[in-house]
Amino acid sequence: MSKQKLELTWVGKEKRPKLEPRILLEDPEKSYHAKQRVSENDIFDNRLIFGDNLLALKALEQEFAGKVKCVFIDPPYNTGSAFTHYDDGLEHSIWLGLMRDRLEIIKRLLSDDGSLWITIDDNEAHYLKVLCDEVFGRRFFVADVSWRTTDNSNNNAKTFSLDTNHVLIYGRSTDWVPNFIQDDAKRSHFKNPDNDPRGPWFDGNPVNNPALRPNLQFNLVGPYGDVIKHPPNGWRWSKDTIEEKIKAGEIRFSEDGKRIIRRTYLQDMDKGLPPSNFWASLDDTGHNRQAKYELKNLFPEIPTVELFGTPKPERLLRKILELATNSGDLVLDSFAGSGTTGAVAHKMGRRWIMVELGEHCHTHIIPRLKKVIDGEDPGGITKAVDWQGGGGFRYYRLAPSLIVEDRWGNPVINPEYNAAQLAEALCKLEGFTYAPSETRWWQQGHSSERDFLYVTTQNLSAAQLQALSDEVGAEQSLLVCCAAFHGISAAAAAARWPNLTLKKIPKMVLARCEWGHDDYSLNVANLPLAEPSPTIPAAKAAKSGRKPSDSRTTDLFGDGEDA
């Protein structure tokens, strides 16, 4: 019987956006820094980016690929409810496509020792798990943590009171492990009732070997003559070593003599204890109502109705960053919401990048971060980490689309771009690093130590190209992006100046991207309707009263249920 690979499918899965890698433009008036250093560890180069988060992720990819230690995202849960700051009711298949596009870039941004953490509820959690398995690979799945989100069950629930959310965790490598917990409260199950000289202990796991070891597949004999069969892979130690540990009391027989028990000692847990996948302690990870209360205290002037309904508590983010990062590591949140991730990362001495498209980027996030930087935020984890203020962030917005149409409908370079911005944009499109030279006017970017890029909106003559070629020299190469070149054909130019590569703008980039597309957000108001499924013709859908966007799709098990 042949094995059939199961995968998550949905209408429009094959459609992928051709994203424009925009440049980022800093607005110094919205950037903010402390007036003086509070400590030598203050971090000032954090980034708050205003704009569509898919375009922002693409904009970050060239500079930060492989450099982000932890990505935390709290995406819209697609529950069908309308929230104040975003519409959270996308059709299931569209939601999956939009999440897939973001996850693929996030994967490229993560460092080899990095990890992804996603909060989600039951509505999409299991589909999202399978989607992440496709993007990252099933072997990179680490855990599905159950986080208690409320301090009071819903007594009006029709079926179950939904008191937990999921936290899906994926490592960038298969050997990713979290930081272990150094918490005395977590060690309370270690006791020493028999005054063991090695200190507190508890009866731990059997001494089986995690890998197949035929030379360790031997049986033991208990004190009453019972044969104790070896685990499938063999014991962890040789027979001589096990006998020594039995004499030392580290391994003992059960009362009936039919099995062995190993003592695990606290003194051997020098790296701490592994975290649990059940986060039920409200003191440890907080809850949504507490987080909203903290926001209300932070912004008493903002009406409660305008605050986020289910913000994430700072304690939750502290827990995640303690497990996933160390001081100075880079944290990314592309669904910034109320800015909790940046606030917590800042207080914990992590570098951070946040992305937010909504106007609450200006009404909530910036004021919140200013209070954190000024040491005027007494809530959240401030006291727990002894935060005193300091550091800062830079505010960026996504540049407009590089290509626009003129009044005759012809594609042209956006007139809002100045010369430096145009050079930076073309560097990003061509895979060059934007780094203008102070001494070589034609050296605006580089892809290697000897390969450079030059951008001009002029029409270059043969004489000008000859002068460029002479300055570049035979040991280097130059990509010349210009409006046009005249007096010589492209073929003749390539033969005459082998150290120059000529490309015309904007023609050189027209087919690269979806120009002028500014919003890929998970907001139903900004999305086109999905095309009807081939299995349900549009006419049939119309007759049945269903909208084209209510199309059916094959789910994970291929049974054709509504997606």
Based on the model shown, name its key terms.
563 residues; 3 domains; 13 helices; 27 strands; 20% strand
Describe this structure in words.
The chain is of the alpha/beta class and 563 residues long. It has 3 domains: 274 residues, Rossmann fold; 85 residues, no CATH class; 107 residues, Trna Endonuclease, Chain: A, domain 1 (3-Layer(aba) Sandwich). Helix content is 24%, strand content 20%. The chain is built from 13 helices and 27 strands. The strands form 7 sheets. Strands 1, 2, 3, 4, 7, 8, 9, 15, 16, 17 and 18 form an 11-stranded mixed sheet that branches. A hairpin with a 5-residue loop joins strand 19 and strand 20. Helix 2 packs across helix 3 and helix 8 runs parallel beside helix 9. The longest helix is centred in the N-terminal third of the chain and has 18 residues. It is globular, with a radius of gyration of 29 Å. The C terminus is likely disordered.
Task: List the SSEs and their pairings.
Elements: E1 24-26, E2 32-33, E3 46-50, H1 53-64, E4 68-73, E5 81-82, E6 87-88, H2 92-109, E7 110-120, H3 125-136, E8 141-148, E9 164-171, E10 201-203, E11 220-221, E12 227-228, H4 239-248, E13 251-253, E14 260-265, E15 278-279, H5 282-285, H6 288-298, H7 314-324, E16 330-333, H8 340-347, E17 351-356, H9 360-373, E18 392-398, E19 403-405, E20 411-413, H10 419-430, E21 433-434, E22 445-446, E23 451-455, E24 459-460, H11 462-472, E25 477-482, E26 484-485, H12 490-496, E27 500-504, H13 538-544
Parallel strand pairs: 3-17, 3-18, 4-7, 4-16, 8-15, 16-17, 23-25, 24-26, 25-27
Antiparallel strand pairs: 1-18, 2-18, 5-6, 7-9, 8-9, 10-14, 11-12, 13-14, 19-20, 21-22, 22-23
